[in-house]
């Protein structure tokens, strides 16, 4: 079943996956399969492998690739679309919500633009690990249902083993989809598309006096919250083009993404981000810029008079920084164990981040070690930070007003600040291990830790640590 293809045949192309030569399992996400009520369907491992490799599809599945446009590094491309992703079906999860099930790396589509539509195994492993880690951290995200080795070579700079990811999303509709629909010049199509987005993602907007303006505001809010969550987890998307920004407010496309180690506000890892457009610090501003492009696509829906429509969307856009700051202040205060946002809490967050940057301290461990009740890790970790004693005294004074015991504070902090993130060097080690040995033990071990990021276990101690100087990853790559 595909409601989107049924309602918008002009926005999709029907295309079948290209069956790989010798598919083999890499990983299957049984927990997610249960949430999607797919366990019975995939009970037979051979049938599941055939479906999720694109080798043999159920007769009820009519695969499609979706059209969309997008601003890529601020340059508009009118027709992009799913170049290596094929939507199999929509399913209803046990939560009553609708989800897309899509194969990524399953072969050419009408939007491949000369590409082969395949994926090397490295990007598949990266997206599997990162998307499942983000889910466990509580960040809205697409998820990985399965990864399958194709048994074929994919040719990029060199030949690499290929793989296929089964990606699950609330939908794959993007800001770029709205841009594509708007440029068709068909206001009826634009309105029907907006109604579909409302029905699928923001049904509360349907009953309001200004449903399309309220839809725009709801998307603004979901993006403000999402980007604040990225910042709170030290996540750098790396390629925040409008075609990589979902209307649902989920993180999508983990190509050149990275997580901060030593805190640096201007950190850039993406090899294609030459000017630092999508640096860690810039993500909120880029989010607002992308939403302005969405607003341009929605003007005809907001008001028949363009000037009036512009005034209305501008008011929403101008409110975005406040939306974002609300979520940012809330999340970072919680990371310090503070549940009342105040000028003091904001100052403590700002000064703590400046302290980390000056001393080049690890972002994730810095917050995690605040939870240590006996100071055994905290004191040596912050020894190099010149202003640590003064900041610590201010923090303790603020905490004292909440009346928490040391145990309660420690538990609160440990439930908020993860021990494990998908560190760049760990992902690269996993990829190299699979490429060199074909063994999946390192992948499975890291995945297990990332799926329970707040629970420290002795056997995962090495997965908490930043990269050694010889292990540091300074560039990440798309893998397309």
From TrEMBL:
Reactions this protein catalyses: L-tyrosyl-[protein] + ATP = O-(5'-adenylyl)-L-tyrosyl-[protein] + diphosphate; L-histidyl-[protein] + UTP = N(tele)-(5'-uridylyl)-L-histidyl-[protein] + diphosphate; L-tyrosyl-[protein] + UTP = O-(5'-uridylyl)-L-tyrosyl-[protein] + diphosphate; L-threonyl-[protein] + ATP = 3-O-(5'-adenylyl)-L-threonyl-[protein] + diphosphate
Residues where Mg(2+) binds: 244, 253
EC assignment: 2.7.7.-, 2.7.7.108
Residues the record marks as active site: 243 (proton acceptor)
GO molecular function: AMPylase activity; ATP binding; magnesium ion binding; manganese ion binding
Residues involved in ATP binding: 81, 83-84, 104, 116-117, 167, 174, 253
Record function comment: Nucleotidyltransferase involved in the post-translational modification of proteins. It can catalyze the addition of adenosine monophosphate (AMP) or uridine monophosphate (UMP) to a protein, resulting in modifications known as AMPylation and UMPylation.
Family statement drawn from the similarity comment of this UniProt entry: Belongs to the SELO family.
Listed name of the protein: Protein nucleotidyltransferase YdiU
Organism in which the protein naturally occurs: Pseudidiomarina taiwanensis
């Amino acid at each position: 079943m595909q409601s989107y293809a049924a309602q918008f045949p002009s926005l999709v192309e029907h295309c079948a996956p290209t069956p790989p030569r010798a598919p083999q399992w890499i990983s299957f996400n049984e927990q997610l399969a249960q949430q999607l009520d797919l366990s019975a369907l995939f009970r037979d491992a051979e049938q599941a492998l055939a479906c999720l490799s694109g080798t043999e599809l159920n007769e009820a599945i009519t695969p499609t690739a979706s059209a969309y446009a997008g601003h890529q590094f601020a340059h508009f491309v009118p027709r992009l679309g799913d170049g290596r992703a094929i939507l199999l079906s929509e399913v209803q999860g046990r939560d009553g919500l609708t989800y897309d099930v899509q194969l990524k790396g399953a072969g050419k589509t009408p939007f491949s633009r000369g590409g082969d539509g395949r994926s090397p195994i490295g990007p598949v492993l990266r997206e599997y690990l990162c998307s499942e880690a983000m889910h466990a951290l509580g960040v809205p995200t697409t998820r990985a249902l399965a990864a399958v080795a194709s048994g074929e070579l994919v040719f990029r700079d060199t030949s690499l083993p290929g793989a296929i990811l089964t990606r699950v999303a609330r939908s794959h509709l993007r800001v770029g989809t709205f841009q594509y629909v708007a440029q068709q010049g068909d206001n009826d199509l634009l309105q029907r598309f907006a109604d579909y987005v409302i029905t699928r993602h923001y049904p509360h907007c349907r009953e309001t006096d200004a449903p399309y303006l309220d839809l725009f505001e709801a998307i603004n809010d979901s993006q403000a919250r999402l980007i604040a969550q990225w910042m709170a987890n030290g996540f750098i998307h790396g390629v925040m083009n409008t075609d990589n920004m979902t209307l649902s407010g989920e993180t999508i496309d983990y190509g050149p993404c990275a997580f901060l180690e030593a805190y640096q506000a201007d950190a850039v890892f993406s090899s294609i981000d030459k000017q630092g457009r999508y640096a860690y610090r810039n993500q909120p501003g880029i989010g607002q810029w992308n939403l302005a492009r969405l607003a341009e696509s929605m003007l005809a829906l907001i008001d028949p008079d363009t000037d009036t429509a512009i005034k209305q969307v501008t008011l929403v856009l101008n409110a975005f920084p406040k939306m974002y700051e609300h979520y940012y202040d809330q999340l970072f205060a919680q990371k310090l164990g503070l549940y009342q946002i105040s000028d003091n809490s904001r100052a403590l967050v700002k000064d703590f981040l400046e302290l980390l940057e000056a001393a080049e301290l690890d972002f994730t461990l810095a917050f995690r070690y605040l939870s240590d009740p006996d100071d055994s890790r905290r004191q040596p970790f912050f020894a190099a930070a010149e202003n640590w004693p003064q900041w610590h005294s201010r923090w303790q004074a603020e905490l004292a007003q909440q009346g928490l015991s040391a145990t309660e504070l420690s538990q609160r902090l440990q439930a908020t600040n993860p021990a494990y993130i998908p560190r760049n060097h760990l992902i690269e080690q996993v990829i190299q291990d699979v490429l060199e040995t074909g063994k999946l033990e390192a992948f499975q071990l890291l995945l297990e830790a990332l799926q329970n990021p707040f629970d420290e276990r002795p056997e995962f101690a090495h997965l908490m640590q930043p990269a050694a100087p010889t292990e540091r990853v300074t560039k990440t790559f798309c893998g397309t």
